[in-house]
Structure formats: structure tokens, C-alpha cells
Specification:
heterotrimer; A mainly alpha; B alpha+beta; C mainly alpha; A: mainly alpha; MetI-like fold; globular; C: mainly alpha; 2 domains; 12 helices; about 0% strand
């Protein structure tokens, strides 16, 4: 028994050590810095002024709250739309038809694609001189690039949302396809024999069956899009700015005082994501208890 | 010579409120075929795994030819185990599977090839050497697993539930094969089973294990006629138990006094229990027996093919009796009959 | 009516597929036509100009075997970044697999106290955003001298990759029967032989998929490399980002094509392993 315990400890220590020192160590150090502890510039006292500045000061408050608004809007919209798009794609594709394998491949194609490349792709397709604008121009819908709507580097975050839909729909798609495949069509056939029409079968049979997986995938996508840097950095504007980009730019600011605010911002982002995940677990646990 | 001794063997597992194996002692003689019999979770497979070295005992010793096995690593013990689900390596073909043990010894490939062919002949499966395990039926997989285990002439062969995954019609065939090969190679063999019928048909001796403790270790016949305790008797289909009090060489029971011929009379305590196999009880409509004869009432008659079972009530005790169906069709429910418990067929136990 | 509906369904799927690969089409047009002016949909002329400017293809007239060798030997920025990305990805993947193997085995096969807590600690980097730890770590690494070093970048890449590899391989071990190893041991195989002849072949398929995607996670890393590498360790994503920010679409497209090539290749060879249940998928959030 003693040998077994030793084996467990020895096996788990290396990966835990990496995660605890680098990941949690990094967070802890960031937390200390956000609280004003900056030995590099001779500051050792602990205070909450960085948090106060970010949340309420005249200089940053407007930036932060509009940024938070943009963050929530982008994450909710892209998660929801990607999930809906993937759901309909998966429902349509699972029924066998010609070129199913190829469609399957194309719909999964963005899964391993780096976010960075997807963001660049959005510029190529949706910018005012992009592929779609050219189509529109050829078809006579617009006369000059300026008439094409601003869809990338726009203040509403459309470009960012589009990029996340592109990328995360593939993630949802793969998860939904495997859920649907493992469920088979028995439930639907049963519902049909009980008199459910196409819409009712979707609403009362398929949706409840895929919902748990869809929901947990949504949490992953939401958490990711809430804290990711690359896509908003390439496709966003200076104001309003998404929080991760803001944190990063504070951090790189030559004024070392802004560094505390950058750290505070990154801790706030992590806190929001954490609260969200806790709510999710709390909800699912409550549901499990209820069932 | 491969005499196996298991001495005071103890094994505890985390999260179990009793030892998985509790102070087990066993001597197995060279060439014997021994069954470890017991319900699942009784610790029999744990003992097997300690013999192979996959578990280390918490206490006690295991010796083979009077040398301890515990300090030898698994692969050098010469103890081969055949697992319940055969565990043929899926990416090796039959030849590679069977030859595995010889390859581990670094033996020349041409010799391995010859030996593999011999072993496959022995288990009556020539010509399947190039197939992959998943192309074989359950029975074939079992034979390949057996051939693989035997190829390096192990000092001890361990079989974990060898027949449990097979269809009924394959079992008889496989059982015969195991016995034939075991006697032919004269390899000391232990097999684990939860099926008493299987143990009786195969084994020279049976070790009955309940809750990690050895209950009884003796020949199959003794389990029927001279079980050590009621647990052992019940496991082998014993149904008739009569509480008695020892008084000199007589046993007093609710039925009346029993004359007892068993050689364990001195070991019996005052309060004891007497059992008799249903097939050893005699009944008659006349009072024709000279001892242990009691008057009873037939409660039920159950015809089950070659035998017919009768439930008989004598005072408040119900006994079950089994007679050959041929020629005794004149006994019906509610008949009054005389029941005879021959003195040399009843057997007393302390608990 | 029903068959009409089905047809609409199928056309919608095809349309969706075309929309999904529009960016890819745009990448190729941009990369192989240097002057693709608005409002052309189809470029007037094809050109390798972008590749020549990136010093990946020699100028016309020098496109011989020696020409290529000479050009690549001059160590152009893209080749340098490519080699960096490959080396870091390879090293980090191998290290993470070796570290994860025993841990995943323990987590997949045994039950013990604090197992849930340990898994929770392992998963947390896959949920919390990288910006939360990398800013603090950056300062730490500067004081330790890891900042701007190859080693520092490799270490920081382990953070998103380690949990992913441990969890995926835990899944593999959860479906693995260790009795096969016991069987081999009783047949005379020692521990080393058992590992290479029995354990490794059994877990290899899942492990290769895990390794390929772990590689992709490292391959796609921008923020972590940028901050810890401090501009001294140039990898492909950094090059893509800076080229894209500077605004030359042809160059951006050409580098991007090199950048996404392994992703498509890996998906192509592993598509049958990739499903929602395989656990391999969960790592994609980090790409």
C-alpha cells in the first residue's frame, strides 16, 4: 500500500509542479503586482488602487466598462451564433447524402486552424476590399469599397464575432456530430410514431438530448473568447476595446504604473471567467441533484 | 517437483473493512490440479495474483519447492497465469502470441516455430497460426491462451475462471482438454472458479474460500459426504441440517436420538449440526429400518427427470430427499412414510 | 414537398461549406497573385512575387535545386521562424508526453484521495485565460533570466499543453486493461520489455493523436511566445501577426499558408479519431 501511494505521488508531481509553479505562480505574481507590490520600482505596499483606478477612475472607468460591455456582447453573440450554426449543420449533415465525407471534413476544417489565421481570413473576406465586397461590386450592389459595410475593425466587434463563429462552429459541430451519432435515430422515430412533427421532434427530442453537451461546450467557447487576445488585437478598434487587449496594452505601457492596472485587469478577466464556470458547475450540479 | 506452500498469507486493500486474504495456509503437491472455489470477491483471484507476484502479500510466505517466491520478480517465477478473458495480445497473430514466452527468453526463432506448432497441435488447433486473435472464436482464444501459457513449461499453471466465458456446449470439451493436458504434462495447476460443479468435475482437491478465509481444503467427494462446516456443505448443495446435542456417542435431536458412525465424533462439540445428502436418505412406507428411522409426512413431490425430490416434514424439521425416478411412483403428497438416515451417511459439524 | 425540403437542406449545406472555405480561397488567391486589385474577383495574373519577397522561392532564372539551397541557406526570416516553431513544438510535445505518461496512467487506472482536486488543478489552465498568468510570469521570468530565451518559451508552452496531454492520455488509460501487462509479466517479459511490447502498442494510437494536437497547440501559440520570448524568439505566429498588422495581404497570405499547412495535414490524418468524446477535441480551445 505504501508503495502504491509513493507511485501515485511520484507520477503526479512533475505535471502538477509545472502547472502550480508556472500557471498558479504566474497568477499569484500577477495578483501581487496588481495590489501594488512592485519590487522592481521600489513599491512594497499592498493596496487596491489599481483596481479602483480600472473600475472607477475618470481616466479608465469609461474604457473599462465599455470594454466589458463589448466583451460580454462578443462572447455571448459568437457563442450563441456558432452553436446555432453548428446545430443546424450537424442536423442536416448527419443524414447521409452525396459528398458527406467532404462536407464533414470542411465543417471540421477550422477546428485545428489557429485563431490568428482565422482572423486574417476574416480580413480577406469581409473587409471593404475583401472577397465579399468584390463579389458585391461585380454583381453591381456597390460602386465603391466605401459602400460595403464595415465588418472588420468595426466598433461593434462584428469582425471579432465572425472570426469566433468561423472557428468555434467547427468545435460545436464535431461535438454535436458525435452526440447525434451515438444517440442514433431511435428517439426521433419513436417520437414520430407518437405523432411529433419535424419541429416538435427538434424542440422536444433532439434539443433536450444534445443540450448538456451543447451547454458545456458553450462554456468552453465563452470562457475562451472572453479572455483571448489574438482575434480582437487583429480585428478590433482602439475604442471600444476588448479587455484582454486592454490589459496587454496597459502592461506594455512604458509607464510602469500602468503595469499594475494591466495586472488588475487580467485578474478581473480571470475572476469573471471563474465566476462563470462556478455558476455553470453549480447549475449542472443542482440539476443533477434535482434529477 | 513443484510443491507449492502458501503460509499465513495476508493481504489488505484500502477501503475494505476486512482483509482480502486472511491467514490462508495451503499445501499443493506436485502435479495436482487444485480448484480455488468461492463466490466473487472472496479473495481467490487475489491469492493467484500474489502467487504470480502481481500483488505483494502484507504478511506470510509463498514457497515453491521450499524456496520463497516473494523475492523473485514475476517474470522469473515460472508461474504462468491464464486470465479469464484470455488477453491475447491483439496486434500479434496466434503464432506470435503462443511463442511470446520463448521469445522473452531469447530463444532462436526456428526453435520457437517448432515448439509453437507442437503446442497448437496439443490444444488441437493446427493451421490457425497466422490469424489475429479477433478472428478466433471464444473457445479457440481460450486454447491459444492455454498453449501460450504452457509453451515455456511453467512450474505452476494458474487459470482464472477458465470456463466462465464459454458457451455450455464448449465447456465439456474444454474441461476434458484441460484435464488431459494437465495430466499429460504433469504441471501443477491451480484454477479459480465460482462454480462448484466445475470444481468438482476438474479438481483433485478443492480449496473453498469465503471472505478471504480458507474454509476447507479437501477432495471433491469429501465436500459432499464430510464437509467441514455448514457453509461448505451449503455451497455444495447441502440442504438438510439438523441441530443436535452430543451425549456420549449418541446425538440427540428433535427427531429423536441419532446413531452416528462418523470418525469425527470426538471432535464434535456438545452443540453441533448434522447433515445428510438428499440422495442418501431412504424412505419406505413400512417401518423396516433398524436405526435412525423416523415417521414423516410428504409435503411435496418435485419430478426433475432422472430424480424425484421429496420434501418431508418430521415433527418441525423439513428434510429433502432425492430418489431415482424409476420404479417409485407410488409416493404422493400427504403420504405418511418412514425416513431412514443411515448412520454411516450422516455427518456432524461444529458450525 | 418532403424531397424539396431535403434538396434545400443539401444546398444549404453546400453553401455553408463554400462560405466556410472562402477565407482559404482568399489566402490562395492573395498568395499567388501579387497585384490582385479591387474589384477583381479573379486575379488577372498569377505571380510568385510574394514567395520571392519572403525568400522562399528564388527569383525567376535562379529556380534550380542549387538556387533553392542557396536561398534557404541564407536563413530568411520565415525559414528561421519555421525552424523555431518546429523545434519548440517538437521539444514541448515530447517532454509533455514523457511527463504525462505516468501521471495519466495513475489518474486513469487508480482511485485515490484528492483525485478530483488534482484533476481540477490540472484542468484550470484550459479554462482560465492565458493573459491571467502570463503577465505575472513574464515579470518572474525576467528576474530569473528566462525571458527572451528559447528555454523560457518552451517552459511557458508547457502550461497550455500539459493539462491537455494529461487529460487526453488519462482518457486512454481509463479504457486500458492493465491485465495485459500482468499477462506478459507472467509469461516472462521484464518491466522494460512489457512497456515496449505491450503497453506502448496499446496506447500508441491515442498517444499519437494527443501528441499531434499538443504540437498544434504549441504551433499556434502567439501571446505566450510574444511575451516570454520578448521579441528574441521569433516563431511563425509572431511573423503572421506582425505581417498582418503591417498590411501586405500577399505576404500575410503566403506565410499563413505555411502556418496552416500542418493543421490541415494533421486533421486529414486524424479525422477518424477526432470526435467529441475522444477528449482530443477539448484541446482545440487553446489553438
Amino acid at each position: 500500500m505504501g508503495g502504491e501511494r509513493l507511485k501515485i505521488i511520484l507520477s503526479l508531481t512533475p505535471p502538477l509542479l509545472i502547472i502550480i509553479t508556472l500557471f498558479f505562480g504566474g497568477i499569484l505574481y500577477g495578483l501581487l503586482q496588481s495590489l501594488g507590490y512592485q519590487p522592481a520600482i521600489g513599491k512594497y505596499d499592498i493596496n487596491f488602487s489599481a483596481y479602483y483606478n480600472v473600475l472607477f477612475s475618470e481616466r479608465y472607468a469609461r474604457m473599462f466598462w465599455t470594454g466589458l460591455g463589448l466583451n460580454l456582447w462578443v462572447s455571448f453573440a459568437s457563442t450563441f451564433l456558432a452553436a446555432v450554426f453548428a446545430l443546424f449543420a450537424a442536423l442536416a449533415i448527419r443524414k447521409t447524402f452525396f459528398a458527406k465525407t467532404i462536407c464533414n471534413f470542411i465543417y471540421s476544417l477550422n477546428l485545428p486552424m489557429p485563431h490568428l489565421v482565422v482572423a486574417v481570413g476574416m480580413i480577406f473576406v469581409f473587409s471593404q476590399s475583401g472577397l465579399l465586397a468584390r463579389f458585391a461590386s461585380q454583381l453591381g450592389f456597390i460602386n465603391s469599397p466605401g459602400e460595403f459595410p464595415v465588418l472588420v475593425r468595426d466598433k461593434y466587434g462584428f469582425g471579432i464575432i465572425l472570426a469566433y463563429i468561423w472557428k468555434e462552429a467547427a468545435f460545436f459541430f464535431i461535438i454535436l456530430m458525435s452526440v447525434l451519432q451515438s444517440l442514433g435515430e431511435n428517439f426521433e422515430e419513436l417520437a414520430q410514431s407518437l405523432g411529433a412533427n419535424k419541429w416538435q421532434r427538434f424542440r422536444y427530442v433532439i434539443l433536450p438530448l444534445v443540450m448538456p453537451n451543447l451547454f458545456s461546450a458553450s462554456i468552453i467557447v465563452f470562457a475562451f473568447s472572453f479572455g483571448a487576445y489574438e482575434v480582437p488585437a487583429l480585428l478590433g478598434v482602439i475604442y471600444p476595446q476588448m479587455l484582454p487587449v486592454m490589459a496587454f496594452e496597459f502592461f506594455l505601457n512604458p509607464d510602469l504604473n500602468a503595469r499594475s492596472e494591466g495586472m488588475a485587469l487580467s485578474i478581473i478577466i480571470a475572476l469573471i471567467v471563474m465566476i462563470l464556470v462556478i455558476i455553470y458547475f453549480w447549475l449542472t450540479q443542482a440539476k443533477i441533484r434535482k434529477d | 517437483m513443484s510443491d507449492l506452500k502458501i503460509i499465513n498469507l495476508v493481504k489488505n486493500f484500502q477501503g475494505m473493512n476486512r482483509p482480502a486474504v486472511n491467514n490462508v495456509n495451503l499445501d499443493i503437491n506436485s502435479g495436482e490440479l487444485v480448484a480455488f472455489l468461492g463466490p466473487s470477491g472472496c479473495g481467490k483471484t487475489t491469492i493467484l495474483k500474489m502467487i504470480t507476484g502481481l500483488f505483494d502479500p502484507d504478511n506470510g510466505d509463498i514457497t515453491l519447492d521450499d524456496k520463497t517466491l516473494l523475492t523473485t520478480p514475476t517474470e522469473k517465477r515460472g508461474v504462468v497465469m491464464v486470465f479469464q478473458n484470455y488477453l491475447l495480445f491483439p496486434y500479434m497473430n496466434v503464432n506470435e502470441n503462443v511463442g511470446f514466452a520463448l521469445k522473452m527468453k531469447g530463444i532462436e526463432q526456428s526453435i520457437i516455430d517448432t515448439k509453437v506448432r507442437e503446442m497448437l497441435d496439443l490444444v488441437k488447433l493446427p493451421d490457425i497460426g497466422l490469424r489475429k486473435p479477433k478472428q478466433l472464436s471464444g473457445g479457440q482464444q481460450q486454447r491459444v491462451a492455454l498453449a501460450r501459457a504452457l509453451i515455456a513449461t511453467p512450474r505452476l499453471l494458474l487459470l482464472d475462471e477458465p470456463l466462465s466465458n464459454l458457451d455450455a456446449h464448449l465447456r465439456d470439451e474444454m474441461r476434458e482438454l484441460i484435464v488431459t493436458i494437465q495430466k499429460k504434462l504433469n504441471v501443477t495447476t491451480i484454477f479459480v472458479t465460482h462454480d462448484q460443479e466445475e470444481a468438482v468435475l476438474l479438481a483433485d482437491k478443492i480449496a473453498l474460500i469465503f471472505d478471504g478465509e480458507l474454509q476447507n481444503y479437501t477432495s471433491p467427494k469429501n465436500y459432499y459426504e464430510r464437509p467441514k462446516n455448514t457453509k461448505a456443505a451449503k455451497f455444495f448443495g447441502g440442504v438438510n441440517f439438523i441441530k443436535t446435542k452430543k451425549n456420549n456417542n449418541q446425538l440427540e435431536s428433535e427427531l429423536g436420538n441419532l446413531i452416528y458412525d462418523g470418525n469425527n465424533i470426538d471432535e464434535l462439540e456438545i452443540e453441533n449440526i448434522v447433515t445428510i445428502r438428499p440422495e442418501n436418505i431412504k424412505i419406505s412406507d413400512k417401518d423396516e429400518y433398524d436405526h435412525n428411522s423416523f415417521k414423516g409426512l410428504i409435503k411435496s413431490v418435485i419430478f426433475s427427470g432422472t430424480h424425484t425430490r421429496y420434501k418431508i416434514l418430521i415433527k418441525n424439521i423439513e428434510l429433502e430427499c432425492s430418489l431415482q425416478s424409476v420404479g417409485i411412483n407410488n409416493i404422493k403428497e400427504n403420504d405418511e412414510i418412514y425416513v431412514h438416515l443411515p448412520k454411516n451417511k450422516i455427518w456432524g459439524m461444529n458450525d | 414537398m418532403n424531397s424539396n425540403l431535403k434538396k434545400i437542406n443539401i444546398y444549404a449545406i453546400y453553401l455553408g461549406a463554400i462560405i466556410l472555405i472562402l477565407p482559404l480561397i482568399a489566402f490562395f488567391i492573395n498568395a499567388f497573385s501579387f497585384r490582385w486589385f479591387y474589384p477583381q474577383v479573379i486575379p488577372k495574373e498569377l505571380s510568385l512575387q510574394a514567395w520571392v519577397r519572403l525568400k522562399l522561392i528564388p527569383k525567376s532564372g535562379q529556380r534550380s535545386f542549387e538556387g533553392f539551397i542557396d536561398l534557404w541557406a541564407s536563413n530568411p526570416a520565415v525559414i528561421k521562424a519555421l525552424i523555431n516553431s518546429l523545434t519548440i513544438g517538437f521539444l514541448v510535445t515530447v517532454v509533455s508526453i514523457i511527463i504525462a505518461l505516468p501521471a495519466a496512467r495513475v489518474l486513469g487506472l487508480l482511485n485515490f484521495r484528492f483525485k478530483k482536486l488534482i484533476i481540477f488543478i490540472m484542468v484550470s489552465p484550459t479554462i482560465l485565460p492565458p493573459i491571467a498568468f502570463v503577465l505575472g510570469l513574464n515579470i518572474n521570468f525576467i528576474s530569473l533570466g528566462f525571458s527572451g530565451s528559447f528555454l523560457g518559451v518552451c517552459l511557458v508552452h508547457l502550461v497550455p499543453i500539459m493539462p491537455y496531454v494529461v487529460l487526453t492520455m488519462t482518457g486512454i488509460f481509463a479504457n486500458y486493461n492493465p491485465d495485459f501487462e500482468h499477462q506478459a509479466r507472467t509469461l516472462g517479459a521484464n518491466k522494460t520489455k512489457t512497456f515496449f511490447l505491450i503497453t506502448l502498442p496499446a496506447i500508441a494510437p491515442g498517444m499519437v493523436v494527443a501528441a499531434l494536437f499538443a504540437f498544434l497547440v504549441s504551433w499556434s501559440q502567439y501571446l505566450l511566445t510574444f511575451l516570454i520570448g520578448a521579441g528574441k524568439v521569433m516563431t511563425l505566429p509572431l511573423l503572421v501577426f506582425s505581417t498582418a498588422s503591417s498590411g501586405n495581404p500577399a505576404l500575410t497570405a503566403a506565410i499563413s499558408i505555411i502556418f496552416i499547412f500542418p493543421a490541415i495535414l494533421i486533421l486529414f490524418f486524424t479525422s477518424k479519431f477526432v470526435s467529441g468524446e475522444s477528449g482530443a477535441t477539448s484541446g482545440f480551445g487553446k489553438i
